Amino acid sequence: MAALTGLEPVTAPAPAPTRPRVWRGVVFLLAAAYFLIPLGASLWYTIYTPTAGVSFAAYGELLTAEGFGSSLLLSMSLAVATIVLVLLLTLPAMLAVRLSAPRLRPVMEVLCTLPLVVPPITFVAGLTTSLRTGTDVLAPTPFWATLIAVQNPAFPLVLVLAYVVLVLPFVYRSLDAGLRTMDVRTLVEAARNLGASWPHVLFRVIIPNLRSALASASFLTLALVLGEFTVARLLGYQPFAVWIVTISGSEGQLSVAVSILSLLLIWLLLLAVSTAFSGRKRK
Amino acid sequence: MTAQVEFRGLRRVFGKTVALDGFDLTIAPGEFVALLGPSGCGKTTALRCVAGFERPDSGAVLIDGSDITDMPANKRDAGMVFQSYSLFPNLNARDNVAFGLRVRKVPVATRRTKADELLELVGLPSHADRFPHQLSGGQQQRVALARALALEPRVLLLDEPLSALDAKVRVSLREEIRRLQLDLGITTIFVTHDQEEALSIADRVAVLRNGRLEQCGPPAEVYDRPATPFVAEFVGTMNHLAGHVSGDQVTVLGQLLPVDGEAPGTLEVDVLIRPEAVQVTPAPEGQAEVIAASFRGASVRLRVALSGGEVMADVPGHEAVRLVPGTRVTVHLVERPVLVAERTVTVPSPATEPADAV
Predict the structure, then answer these.
(1) Domain of B312?
(2) Nearest residue of B to residue A209 by CA position?
């Protein structure tokens, strides 16, 4: 922010000989090949069959395939719910730690990074065990009663809770990076000094300056939830990723087509998020 | 829009550090008071108690006689300018200035006009649409000042607002702050660790040490008649010279000078002499010798070795050529009352030597 102002732009050194450019090109081509060849091969696989030649039938079938729409919708709504919940949890907590208990920061960091070191399979095994035994042990508690009350087979809340834990490290990292770029304490104090209430401080001062961090946190959450398989599969739900695996058993071409489509979808979302963000910043 | 501010027995402890330890001070309406002290002396904590960012463990802060100690920060009528750049990065200069008015739901047109007026007041009429990252440090602090004044607060709090700026901007901006403060007649508390800054713009300078007030008075008084040895040391530079008290006079460097204020009970004392009160004249037969000279433009700070120790002297800059290190000189003290303190130096008193031999 402020530290970036006031410096004279450094004049570029005289153009170096052309050799580095060649290397740049080589690296670029290698990276492009690494990403594009598998993609191209997948695409070719979905549109070409030796018997029928080139045809986009697989993509046409997608829209009519059993479970495509519902699983995609489930994944999307799970992602949105996870984003909302995880941000509601982490942002106020991180602000509180920064403002009034800076000594707890390492503790919070470790807590939030912990899910990264627990393999999803261990996590879900623990989850199912506690769900099974919980019925007996926790049944009389109001917590359990609430969980049972909000249960809904069409919208598995337990997945949202599990995903919140899984995305915690990524969300924490993104928000932490965003909060590091500003002097939170001074900005909050300046706003308070000008008469702003706490909600006003949060929505008019903190969030507008955290836009990119919030966007990246949301995006990482979205990507992770759309691609999450282990937890959903083992708990017996069928969001998008599980559906892809299910269908790939019976219809190979279709499942690859779905993968390509979901990749495109995520790219489009990323593009939308980043252009929306940069467009607002230029204003 | 101006108010009296009173600190009453303020005490604040952070863990083992006592930031404020019974701090008392009353600031008259419209007065500009500088809180001066080394880092950790509690000056910023005192200011933050007025702003409401810090709650004293005991004691009270009163504005116009009413206790505001328990009032939340956003209800207080005090505008603050922070040390680090505190402008909202997502808002341009005008919106930053208008932030407080927006919080109070002032209509758009009114707050726009008001913000533009204030930006003009701080000398940035054409920068309203710039964002903080497009402004220099000095400009950012001007906008911050305009923002603090936008709500027409009764007290203006300045927390080392100039310390992040380069020397030239610092001097010009502090003069502008003072001019603005006099025009508006707003009670102002200015926290700084830079004694020159404090002395040059404040009506009164309050020197703090370990969370307590050491002395509060007009700049000239604090400089010329420091109430305690700490103030004497902290504000400006002081020579400690061994002296011998006789009645209400003291013999130092062979000169007999009147004692200013109280003398300690002992006869052997430290005499406190400002470097500018030490006159140095080149003399081939002089017994003193210049051992170092640092040129400061307008003046030269000399270190002069005497038979009894060392003394610092400030002489006009043009004397530099005559007083290069190695020059033999005579040292003479300006004839005026001097402060004495309890003996802390151990060098033998040169008082027995005849004056012309020094």
Answers:
(1) 237-352
(2) B90
